[in-house]
TrEMBL record:
Protein name as catalogued: Nucleic acid binding protein
Family: Belongs to the CvfB family.
Family matches, as Pfam families: S1_2, WHD_CvfB
Species, as recorded: Crenothrix polyspora
GO molecular function term, any single one: nucleic acid binding
Amino acid sequence: MINIGKVNTLNIVKQQDTGVYLDGGASGEVRLVDKKLPENCEIGNALTVFVYLDSEGNLSATSKIPLAQVDDIAWLKVVSLNYVGVFLDWGLPKDLLVPFSEQHHELEVGKSYLVKVFLDDKNRIAATTKIDRFITDESLDFTVGQKVSLLITDKTELGVKAIVNNTHWGMLYGNELFQPLRKGQKIDGYIKQIREDHKIDLILQQPGYGKVLSLTDNILNQLKENGGVLMLSDKSPPEAIYAVFGVSKKVFKQAIGALYKQQLISLDKAGIRLI
């Protein structure tokens, strides 16, 4: 089954002067529009392609993969406008349309916006800035510790809002952030907790004891590489700890506490030493 607006893996079934054609199953043949054909472009071979409808409503494919596919939310730049709407650069030769009816407010050329990519009632690919109708604040579908894909959106007094797996809102709290984040950035994160009101709290470091275990090995390796001394301690600034180990100060303190109990390190105000 062909998934319009998404990446598909299709077999080459025909090569003619008019081009290369792929097997679209019940949907029929799909024409490959690339002027420069991909490598190993021979009958029977499988190609990974992005499928869409051309201006005449025919199934077409390209080996170029766009910055966003149908159902994705992405941070895309406006490159032009006309009487039907504005057009976004999404990495393909034909720009992505945001109709005027799908704009919260007037969009400006040269600026970037968060948009949701969708199929209209004629299976044409378009985008909308009205993303709230696609995203919910509440969830019972996630589990604590689950790894998720995050899209960074707006800063708030509490921290930074993020879209989780293109479907839900979540919150990264400022006191647990130890790296700069920018609007539109895609980054992996974890479910910290599902609150009583079913809202999602997020964290960038993997929660739980498993994270501490992997960090203890990293600390021991760093100590061995630095002659048994590391100028970091539980008194060090969170930013300094994150710069070296990419974890919060809380997680770092748990790890060195575990190593101290095992009598593998000694602690002082300046740092830690390998025993």
